[in-house]
UniProtKB/TrEMBL annotation:
Keyword Isomerase: yes
Any one GO molecular-function label of the UniProt entry: isomerase activity
Protein name: 4-oxalomesaconate tautomerase
Gene: galD
EC number(s) per entry: 5.3.2.8
Organism of this sequence: Vibrio ruber (strain DSM 16370 / JCM 11486 / BCRC 17186 / CECT 7878 / LMG 23124 / VR1)
Amino acid sequence: MTQLTQLPFTMMRGGTSRGPYFLASDLPEDREELAKILEKVMGSGHELQIEGIGGGNSLTSKVAIVGRSSAPDADVDYLFAQVGITEKKVDFSPNCGNILSGVGPFSLEKGLVTASGDKTTIRIRNLNTNKIIHATIETPNGQVNYNGETYISGVNSPAAPIELSFLDVEGAKTGKLFPTGNVQDKVADYHMTCIDAAIPVMIVDAAQFGKTGHEKPAELDADIEFTHKLEALRRQAGEMMGLGDVSDKVIPKPILVSKPATDRGTINARYYVPRTCHKAIAVTGSIALTMSLCHPGTVSYDLLQQNTELVNCCIEHPSGFIDLKVARKSGKVSSVSLVRTAKKILEGILLL
């Protein structure tokens, strides 16, 4: 095992998440060896992650590892890691679209990519899903600009917009948009849609569980009986999607849906990560939900009973709203785009 004693890092807020960003060249390629280092870095094994730089929350126990890409359609490679808090484990299976927001700025600052004009578009290959995302960053005078007037729900302060376009989102982990072969499945008395777009998710109508779907995350988490039901259903969905035993995996992610409470919203969502309710919604989860609204017969499509082709989608979540735009080519969804922000918090050396 590589004996690292010091490790350079940049701490960044990416979207509504936060975590350290590392250069791939500073870390081992072997995933088991890498996992052990990340557990130590973040302080896994303690609810406060007291001996590391994790924040004791799933949204602040995330890691980005970035390097130059050898792929012809990408400039950089990005590996995401969800690091356990009380448990010493690391999950490399999902992508994180919020942490992704900081990959472009980090790549520019570290010289992996050169700025080109007032705006620079970086082609990012996510190694977790082998999918391509284009990130457009403001780079006046060849420097990353973090300051701006763009607000995103779940973040206190405005910042410069970062445009993310997710290309070819279908089948991120399973290779199929609807891995079960159906747009809607029924397990026991529950109807659900299992869809894999940017990330595998299980979409269910909140009303099936006697919920409005507008509850606060803490209220949902306090309902232990409901949480156990949802987790049991998630595990069945994982088997049906071909993901095997998902009891130790963070995918598929459950999404409770309900009708929006405002005129602005297209749909309302409560997103799980995967056993507790997210205080906002993941970028990848919002893409999966948007894609479900593009296909008749899904739980979300039937809930809204819409007949128009979806272009703009506004998802209500516990912290506010997230807006997405759907682009089509030859009648098929070619990309889903949205705006995020990022902030560089500090640079330093970790002592391991």
